[in-house]
Amino acid sequence: MSSNKNARYNRFSSGTTSITTSENTNGTRMETTFGPAFSAVTTITKADGTNTFKQHRRTPSSSSTLTYSPRDEDDGMPPISTPRRSDSAISVRSLHSESNMSLRSTFSLHEEEEEPEPLVFAEQPSVKLCCQLCCSVFKDPVITTCGHTFCRRCALTSEKCPVDNAKLTVVVNNIAVAEQIGELFIHCKYGCRPAASSKPTAFEVDPRGCPFTIKLSSRKDHESSCDYRPVRCPNNPSCPPLLKMNLEAHLKECEHIKCPHSKYGCTFIGNQDTYETHLETCKFEGLKEFLQQTDDRFHEMQVAMAQKDQEIAFLRSMLGKLSEKIDQLEKNLELKFDVLDENQSKLSEDLMEFRRDASMLNDELSHINARLNMGILGSYDPQQIFKCKGTFVGHQGPVWCLCVYSIGDLLFSGSSDKTIKVWDTCTTYKCQKTLEGHDGIVLALCIQGNKLYSGSADCTIIVWDIQNLQKVNTIRAHDNPVCTLVSSHNMLFSGSLKAIKVWDIVGTELKLKKELTGLNHWVRALVASQNYLYSGSYQTIKIWDIRNLECVHVLQTSGGSVYSIAVTNHHIVCGTYENLIHVWDIETKEQVRTLTGHVGTVYALAVISTPDQTKVFSASYDRSLRVWSMDNMICTQTLLRHQGSVTALAVSRGRLFSGAVDSTVKGTSDQITGHNLKLGQGRFKLDIRKNFFMEGSAKGFQGDGGVLIPGGVEEMTGCGTQCSGLGDNLGISHRLDSMILE
């Protein structure tokens, strides 16, 4: 059985079989040869000896029916026997060679929309190949989100699937179905005519048209060279329309053939016979070589002229660009001259100001020397330098707020990890407890009595008991994140978007007393001092009387939103979004100075006051801490210890604590009176090379101790090492929850 199968396969695939028919009465002999892929080639030999070749393909419906399957070929039409070919007289062979340049295309929705064509199938297509929306064979089939296949146009114009009522969204082209449709056999469009029905898109087979059936995917190839395709006479458009198969006979009889030298002035028009006779007597025929050379030279000159035109256009464009650049350089030069003039005037002003400052410094030094000579030591220390003493490590995200409980020397820090950590800043320097309860970033902390209040991005305020560090109440405070908290006169003030709410503190409860409105932006800064509340929003500081909760004064500022406020005995200080620190006189409410130096938003301000001087600390997005002397309004020191933006400050017993985006809290104090962190002898030392703790004689904290980094380690880790990197480098847990001493 397999041998028979192979024989059949070889017969139709690799071998060829010839069937020769008898000659007809007119002397025409036809021979059909079956080739590979079930194709057949019919050779028709006429009495005059000419041969015509036709290739056919068997249709799936009938093994005996041969249907035409075109390919790039020479249809075997004999050319008109003309001595030479011209531009005006188109020979049959040249016409066929041009018509055989087939345009390959695929069956798609876009082509159907641009050029609707008759579509008559040789056999009724399967229902599975029909779209359930338009009930026609798929056109550009696509798969939708519901898993069904539809025409692309149907899927885009319909809202719901007719099968499961799901929303239709195109996912991908259905290539498999498109290939199946491409294999369907259809009638040539030149063998179809409009059907008698009323539908304009309905067609039927025209028995007088092309009899061939072809695959849908190859219809363009066949129809571009179909003998039944309508064509126009190439010699004269006024000739009646013709079919391609009749074009050869028409060209032999056409009376409108022009002389090939008509473009030079020859007026001959005739048929094929007179055309050949005319060429023998045409006066231009003898000059054709000269004329051809002239045409070639003229063409070369045109090409050269076109190239020159392109070069000229390019040079013109370059000249235009150079002119624009020159104009721009002139403008820039003028601007630079203007800036130079402005800088020169500013330098002159700065020089005068520096001279005044130098005179003031000389006066101040004279005053200091006089006091020193009088024996008043320690009242002023020009060498007061603040230094970072240690780092609290343990948070898993940026630290946004700090608060100090002086009675127990506790420091509270709120972070993006939604927790509040309680640090001992006196004895163990470890995290006493981690308070959890918020569902968002902890943005604000405040202490009143023995209660801690925390505000969060989850729009709530949580009340904590400091004695047992337990949550006692949760209040839904605002419709937006709680940005800042401050307490005074047994009231709690909370700031959010365009609103400040005033709460009466009743035990563990908060009773809403009043909402302060009239604010133009987020309230990110609140400070209570004596009987006044200071609030900062966009380029505005409002001063409220706490006793009647009325606005008594408005300070206008510049530099964008106010992010921080501090109040000293003599000044009101605010930090803004645009790197500036503004200072007002607290009595006259007149702005006295604008402090510059930061290159990022000033997130926090803190004050340390002594009887002799007042220091203001500023924390910025630029990762720095700056120390400002309020006596002469100058920056006396810049601390760069954090690896991220410094976002929060808190002061306790002359010590400054700073929280930053690097997830750490650092403790800073001055060299002389800064309550240096005491060291004692411990039981552990840190071997960095082996990444573990071992018995030894290194120093540790008093009490239980934390982790002490000797002075030599500072160079490697630094005070600004991020929490994750510090834990990796030292071989300790990521949640260290202790202080690292520098």
UniProtKB/TrEMBL annotation:
Single GO cellular component term: cytoplasmic vesicle
Catalyzed chemical reaction(s): S-ubiquitinyl-[E2 ubiquitin-conjugating enzyme]-L-cysteine + [acceptor protein]-L-lysine = [E2 ubiquitin-conjugating enzyme]-L-cysteine + N(6)-ubiquitinyl-[acceptor protein]-L-lysine
Keywords: Apoptosis, Cytoplasm, Cytoplasmic vesicle, Metal-binding, Nucleus, Phosphoprotein, Repeat, Transcription, Transcription regulation, Transferase, Ubl conjugation, Ubl conjugation pathway, WD repeat, Zinc, Zinc-finger
TM spans (from-to): none
Pathway it works in: Protein modification; protein ubiquitination
Polar residues biased stretches: 1-31
Sequence ranges of Low complexity compositional bias: 60-69
Domain of life from the UniProt record: Eukaryota
UniProt-annotated stretches for the region Disordered: 1-32, 49-97
Location in or out of the cell: Cytoplasmic vesicle; Nucleus
Domain named RING-type: residues: 131-165
Record-annotated TRAF-type domain positions: 222-292
GO BP terms: apoptotic process; Notch signaling pathway; positive regulation of protein metabolic process; ribosomal large subunit assembly
GO MF, any single term: ubiquitin protein ligase activity
Zinc finger (TRAF-type): 222-292
SUPFAM superfamilies (UniProt xref): RING/U-box, TRAF domain-like, WD40 repeat-like
WD repeat segments: 392-424, 435-474, 555-594, 595-638
EC numbers for this chain: 2.3.2.27
Record family assignment: Belongs to the WD repeat TRAF7 family.
Subunit structure, interactors included: Homodimer. Interacts with MAP3K3 and promotes the kinase activity of this enzyme.
PANTHER family associated with the record: E3 UBIQUITIN-PROTEIN LIGASE TRAF7, WD40 REPEAT PROTEIN
Name of the protein this chain belongs to: E3 ubiquitin-protein ligase TRAF7
Organism: Zosterops borbonicus
Lineage: Eukaryota, Metazoa, Chordata, Craniata, Vertebrata
